[in-house]
Amino acid sequence: MTPTPPTTLGVVYDVDGVLRVAPLRRQWGRLRALATRGPHDRRSLLGMQRVLRTVAAPGAEVYFLTGLPIRLARVVRAALRHDQYPPGTLLMAGRRLFSGWLFGAGLEAKRDALERLAVEHPDVSWVLVGDDAGHDPQLFADFARDHPDRVAAIALRRLVDVVRSDSPVARDDSPPVVEAPNGEEMLPGLRAALGLHEPTGEPRIDDWFLTEQERGNPATRLRPWTEGNDVRLRVHGHAYYATLAERLAATGPGDQVLFLGWRGDGDQQLVDDGPTVAEALADAARCGTRVCGLLWRSHLSVFGYHVTQNRRLAAALRAAGGEVLLDQRIRPLGSHHQKLVVIRGDTDPAGDVAYVGGIDLVLGARDDIVHRGDPQSVASGDAYDRDPRHDAQLELRGPVVRDLHEVFLERWIDPTPLVRLPWHVVPDLVHRLPRRGAVLPPPTPDPPAAGRCAIQVLRTYPRRTPPLPYAPWGERSVARAFIKALGRAQRLVYVEDQYLWSADVARVFAAALRRAPQLHLVAVVPRPHADAGPSPAMIGQAEAVAMVHEAGGDRVQILDVENDEASPVYVHAKICVVDDVWCTVGSNNFNSRSWTHDSELVTAILDEERDRRAPADPGGLGDGARVLARRLRLELMREHLGEPDDAALLDPDHAAELVRSRAAALDAWHAGGEQGPRPPGRMRRHTPAHEQVELTLRRRWITGPAYRMVLDPDGRPLSARLQRTY
């Protein structure tokens, strides 16, 4: 009798390679992988959850196979749920923990579990998923040999040899075998092997935004996202400060002004011949507005930090009836980097507004589109920053204002002492700085809907001791949100960033570039000072830039910007636009410090309104181009390229090619002695750090690790670092 061919798919995922506690052999392999760096090292768990969800989408059952004994089922289930794997059934194949699983035994037990599964489900064709660091290649090959018509595909994450071209599993009569160093790069091959297509159709908000579970911080009071918000772009400090000054001047009795900052310079003017930061906030306080702020206390001024400036602003506002706390509740060598102003009215919630982005209340930030620098800073004796500066902020109205109010309040009511180290406590006592904030009322209800944008508030908080009440295990929703959005990118990722330093962050972009062969990455970063010698940070940037170039080739363009007088413009903006659909503006940089170690605040935006200009759906997934995201990208690219309108920039391929040609023309003009008319635009090819820095043994093994410990520290728990997850 001829057996009935399988009619449905099932998935078996060997999870011994993804659990935080792993057999000794796997832990040793993770430590080796952690110490291995370079553009070819793409090993991570990135995208494995999406691999399972994609294969299971047609209705396939998912089984999680492990060599652990049944008594640890609850622990395994909790770990899988914590890491956002889809629901499924556990196959606990082990009997003994220390004498078996811990030392890598369990092949026969797993083989027996697969055999039982095959008998119990004779109509299922299996997709076998695992990695090459344990038993999986042999286990899956044996099962496919014994059941040649019951295996639809084998998917192996490469950990042992990431550059291997042949497969230890594949034979002439074997099912399709897909191998890749991470799930993102595995996904296209697995889709092709199974005949699955990229899903298209009516998009959902959670296709882009993190769900409540995906945020990974159940202690927060923030909602997953809010809808009905209005977003206005305030590109450049000149535009933002003028708007902020006008709104502060309109506050009155019973209103609230709440702000978070990295640094506060009270003598920074908000408008020409207008009030300074200290004057504007103090005037609001004297009029009866409740003015409260949290500034990073900063490290000692002897090391070049700005505790003196923050103390001055705190003292000026205290004298006017306001209250500013200098907050040092951070990890060692960390900082509070969030930048936020929330203004809430006493009687008219429709006037409530919040400002989020990369612009602090500091000297040097009030530049404009001409980029000649902040007039006050250029003329000042304070050399904090006299360079022309490019930055951006968002003005937000609607229900999101309440969530941003909660962000402030969570930190304000944290009972942990603001400072604990003696060399912090004593000076603060001398300067009579408050040790705790006054009681603030709970946030008032949502302001009314004001627009058509959905907004997700994202943060970074490290795991620290004592734990943060609102993020006891830390929060890395900034990193998780970028990972999710880049996993959907198809055509163009446009980035403006102050650093682009970390290989761990670059690995996420590199995986997207390998997964999507039409994807362009255009990144605008600051130009290093010509007289600056090689710095430790260049080693980090060398790793990051080399990794994305190795992945995307000429689809990757790293650029910097100069003004019309050829002076470098310091890019301080923190912006990302993916396929003209999803965009972010915030305080985060693309480095490990911002994704794991310091406090950061970002808003991700999905505009409900579509931009119907061709291409109406750049990514081809049914999302359509969204008005706000496309407007943000086009406004920035028009400025940098000197384009009078949007026509040449709408199509991602055309925009990328125009960037390349304009940058090449300007580079050639400079190389030719600046003869003839200056070509249009301000973008120039950013000289990659690996061309500036010779990676000697000393820099690789001494300077490099020191840079990663001090300048770009990693705030993840060790288990997450070993797994390269967030």
From TrEMBL:
Q: Which reaction does it catalyse?
A: a 1,2-diacyl-sn-glycero-3-phosphocholine + H2O = a 1,2-diacyl-sn-glycero-3-phosphate + choline + H(+)
| Domain PLD phosphodiesterase as annotated: residue spans | 567-594
Q: Please name the InterPro entries in this protein's record.
A: APP1_cat, PLD-like_dom, PLipase_D/transphosphatidylase, PLipase_D_fam
Q: Which UniProt keywords apply?
A: Hydrolase, Lipid metabolism, Repeat
| Alphabetized PANTHER family for the sequence | PHOSPHOLIPASE, PHOSPHOLIPASE D
* Protein's recorded name: Phosphatase domain-containing protein
At the highest ranks, the source species' classification is: Bacteria, Bacillati, Actinomycetota, Actinomycetes, Pseudonocardiales
